[in-house]
Amino acid sequence: MPRFMSPMIRRRPDADKLGTDPRAAQDFAPSPITRDIDFSQTAQPSTEQGSEQLEEQPQIPPDVRISEGGFRQIRDESLVLLSQGISHRIERSEEGPFQIFVEPEKRRMAQFQIRLYHRENPPRDENPPLPLKFTLHPLWVLAIPIACTLLDFSDISIQMHNAGIADASKILRGEWWRTITAMTLHADSRHLASNLVSGFLALSLLHYRIPLAKLVPFLAVASAVANFFVALTVQTSFRSLGFSGFVFATIGCLAVIEFRLMPRETHGLLRRFAPLCGAASLAVFLGLGENADILGHLYGFIAGLLCGFIPKKKTLRWGAPTVAADILWIAAYYALFIIGWVLAF
């Protein structure tokens, strides 16, 4: 069986080399005289000699850190190193930033390639404004109200509207699932379109701060709790429906996230509270109207403010990759509405 040896381990002299040296051949030649050896009296190697042998073996130098930053920055730099065939590894420190480590002999080449990349692509500000770009990520969140509302408008399920609407008196009598099912129903196509457009914009902005799967289940639960507090406040035959409570919870959550990311060097106390004031003004502008559930919008906005403190600040600042656990959060979001409708029927 062949034996593989590390290049860092010193090799013994080969037999060919020993043959060329007569002294070495004499030293390594087998003696014709056989002697009896008493193994009980053989000297054991001392610990000092063992430690000296360990010290003589060369140590592999540790990897060198060449970069530190957010998830997107480290991801781009890692792709640059991979394109140049430079092996490296990525770790995350306890403080939050991601780090790139390379072997010492590859440090200069790796730093040179990263400098070239940043020269062509200058880094952005610490807390840049949110870009309003088209993305399909909010669609998996809005699929629930779209599907349930279309079923309600059709003749497939006649009792769906009455079974799922949020009735304050029935909620207080124990039909708590109505706080969940009411979010998936709408009065007409205009009501549905307004909630879909506003919800799509709010969720798109939230997606650029944190993956939606990490917050959407909490926003759904917060919206259901907001509907319960509406029933607890009114305590009459008050009926409501619509996805607007979830939309206002998203706006409140986004406002707190922007407030937490505001740099401490910002001059003026009012400047730091600008995201909260702007979100509150937007909530008032959108929340008031004919046949609007003002209490539902208010409680949904307050519940969303609390949800903004759920993610860690280092996750918001340095970013977070999409992991397998996010699939479980998506499944939990769908399971919440499935359980609500199963109990409704």
From TrEMBL:
Residues 11-20 have a biased composition (Basic and acidic residues). Residues 1-65 are annotated as: Disordered. The chain crosses the membrane at residues 215-234, 240-257, 269-288, 294-311, 323-344. The keyword Transmembrane helix applies. Residues 174-310 form the Peptidase S54 rhomboid domain. It is found in: Membrane. It is a multi-pass membrane protein. The keyword Transit peptide does not apply. Its main location: membrane. InterPro entries: Peptidase_S54_rhomboid_dom, Rhomboid-like_sf, Rhomboid_protease_S54. Coiled coil: none annotated. It holds the Pfam family Rhomboid. Residues 39-52 have a biased composition (Polar residues). GO terms for molecular function: serine-type endopeptidase activity. Keywords: Hydrolase, Membrane, Transmembrane, Transmembrane helix. Belongs to the peptidase S54 family. This is Rhomboid family protein. It comes from Fibrobacter succinogenes (strain ATCC 19169 / S85).
